[in-house]
Amino acid sequence: MSVCNQCPRRCNVDRAKSTGFCNVPEFFSVARIGLHQWEEPVLCGKNGAGTIFFSGCNLRCVFCQNRAISRGNLNKPPMNADDLAAAMLDLQKQGAACIDLVTPTQYALQLVPVLRAVRPKLQIPVVYNCGGYESVETLRALDELIDIYLPDCKYFSNDLSCSFSHAPNYFSIAIEALAEMLRQVGDPVYNADEMLTRGVIVRHLVLPGHRNDSIALLRALAERFGTKRFLLSLMSQYTPDFSEPDAPKELSRRLTSFEYQSVLDTAAYLGFSGFSQAASSATATYTPEF
Questions:
Q1: DSSP states of 150-191 as a string?
Q2: Mean pLDDT across the stretch 201-208?
Q3: How far apart, in whole angstroms, are the C-alpha atoms of residue 20 and residue 253?
Q4: In this predicted model, what pLDDT tens digit does every residue of 48-95 receive, in sequence order?
Q5: H or E element, residue 30
Q6: How far is CA 177 from CA 140, 146, 191, 254, in A?
Q7: Distances (CA, A) of 242 to 74, 260, 287
Q8: For residue 40, what pLDDT band results from cuts at 50, 70 and 90?
């Protein structure tokens, strides 16, 4: 890879010599590998998802719960392609329900040869678990290598995406990325154990003070795609524990039950299927140790 333009940031930097917005080099910087029980039930099974948490991120969310690794400043030994492939096979041996690639966007193109090599040896699905700010061109390189896409769809408002995640035109970019994901993997497919083997789950975190943006986002998704082509995971787990000191004032509190329920009601009215969370999820307890 000469210069990196694989995400919408198009930093045009040579990551062998310097870093772009994601703040990680060309080699794989991996923060954590292990079984993880706190993904959606259709991804976890009895043993958990086999998560591989990558360092760095092409978003800069002011409330990021993985800030310890998302800013790319983790001091861990690099991994090469063979190491990463071996880690995937080891997770499968441990009984993982899937291979869950967490925040992989900055390594999408580097993952292509790894996945091509390891896919014939995997009997479990590969999940691309991302922030939604994806390049359609890069996603096309992953065609037939990813079984399940798990993108966030964070904001409808461009003002919010710029203020909260430093991500201009987030929704217009995320919705086209979602269209490409759906083209690749199609409608949800389950196995005999009711585990998801193929398809898309769209995650949306409802933020305090911004339920109307969430409602507008759901309506826009329903208008573009309908409500049966993907599963919707509506999250209430926002906690101010991770907010930056200068984050907007409304992010200094937890979500109210009214705010979350109003978005849930909209999702039900529109006809979405998927997952919701209990209020008890709004805690730092479920964030992994890095």
A1: EEB---S-HHHHHHHH--TTHHHHHHHHHHHHHHHH-S-EE-
A2: 98
A3: 32
A4: 999 999 999 999 999 999 888 998 656 678 899 999 999 999 999 999
A5: strand 30-36
A6: 10, 14, 26, 30
A7: 17, 19, 10
A8: very high
